[in-house]
Write a structure and sequence with these properties.
Elements: E1 9-12, H1 23-30, H2 34-45, H3 51-60, H4 69-76, H5 83-92, E2 96-104, H6 105-115, E3 119-123, E4 125-128, E5 131-136, H7 143-156, E6 164-168, H8 174-179, E7 182-186, H9 190-195, E8 198-200
Parallel strand pairs: 1-2, 1-6, 2-3, 6-7, 7-8
Antiparallel strand pairs: 4-5
């Protein structure tokens, strides 16, 4: 069934934007490799390494983590302050909320509906024998994939790109921020702040409400 038309579309990154955490680091904690993966994630978010290559190498480290670990990871997730207020405000004004993530459906499929997100897309982790295999299942959601998702969701809902807002913190958010009518750097790395249309400093998503059409 086609998506219902809306007045505008807001698309957020997930890790360190929709939520305070970097999910891959929480999963890596389960493998005892948290600090190592955190350093690699930071480099990827600064744009120092290719995102897809970095993600594959970080996911390799997760091999052997049991799928039961997702429950422990979910229990540690912290929604970003102001997220409920922002999503409610978007809906009150006739808009829709999307989340596109270089993280994982295994977590977002629970978190997104809880927060009232309308549509979401992320990577999937391959499994074997009830444990992670160390591989990404399917195409990787990278910078180009994020921009593509924003465009597809806008078209499906009859929204011109000029009436879209993209919110992110890392280098892999820059393409979707450039494609959107308004690109917002939130809790962002220096390279992202430098290229954004608007920079929001406080880690409070309700600060974005005045920017809504």
């Amino acid at each position: 069934m086609p998506a219902a038309p809306v007045r505008f579309l807001v698309v957020l990154d997930a890790d360190s934007t929709l939520i305070r955490n970097e999910v891959i680091e929480l999963i890596a904690d389960e493998a005892g490799r948290g600090p190592e993966v955190a350093a690699a994630t930071e480099a990827a978010m600064r744009g120092e390494v290719d995102f897809a290559t970095s993600l594959r190498s970080r996911v390799e480290v997760l091999a052997g983590v049991p799928v039961t670990a997702f429950a422990r990871v979910l229990a540690r997730i912290e929604p970003t302050p102001g997220v409920h207020e922002l999503i409610d405000a978007v809906h009150d004004r006739g808009g829709a909320v999307g989340v596109v993530s270089g993280g994982f459906h295994e977590i977002l499929d629970t978190i997104a509906p809880r927060l009232g997100v309308d549509v979401w897309r992320a990577n999937r982790l391959a499994t074997a024998d009830e444990a992670l295999s160390g591989l990404v299942d399917g195409d990787i959601v990278d910078a180009a994939g994020k921009a593509q998702a924003l465009g597809e969701w806008a078209a499906e809902r009859g929204v011109a790109l000029s009436r879209t807002i993209a919110i992110g913190d890392g280098a892999n958010d820059l393409l979707m921020m450039a494609a959107a009518g308004l690109g917002v750097a939130f809790n962002a790395k220096p390279a992202v702040r430098a290229q954004a249309d608007v920079v929001v400093g406080p880690v409070d998503l309700s600060e974005i409400i005045p920017l809504l059409p």
